[in-house]
Automatic annotation (TrEMBL):
Source species: Aquella oligotrophica
Cross-referenced PROSITE patterns: PROKAR_LIPOPROTEIN
Extent of the signal sequence: 1-19
Pfam families from the UniProt entry: DUF1425 (PF07233)
Protein known as: DUF1425 domain-containing protein
Superkingdom field: Bacteria
Amino acid sequence: MKKISCLAAFLFLSGCATNPNSIDAHLVKVGDVDNLDVQDLRSARINNFLNIQATVINSSGSIQQLYYRCQFYDGNKFKVGNDTQWIPVRVYGKTTQDISCTATEPTAIDFKLEVSSTGSAAKVYSN
């Protein structure tokens, strides 16, 4: 009986645990990001570099401007690589848009995707 109680408690507590791979754990919204939502967030290691891909959905009927960038971290939660540029993208009304980033260092194992919908919240640098 004691084993069953322990098993039931374990299953209950593990069901309440947060998923460390959830979107919220990797998403930072800078300012208001109205009508735009990250619907799916995926990562994979390709050629030993961490690659991020997200699907953004525009729930409004009009074109929305989105700026995004990725920050990458090593196993000790230290940022690796240089700050990436904000990348502008237009998301048309009632559509989805895939966005992606690739780490510049093979030591990257974690990431944060930063998104903003206003140019005033994010400076866009171009070469």
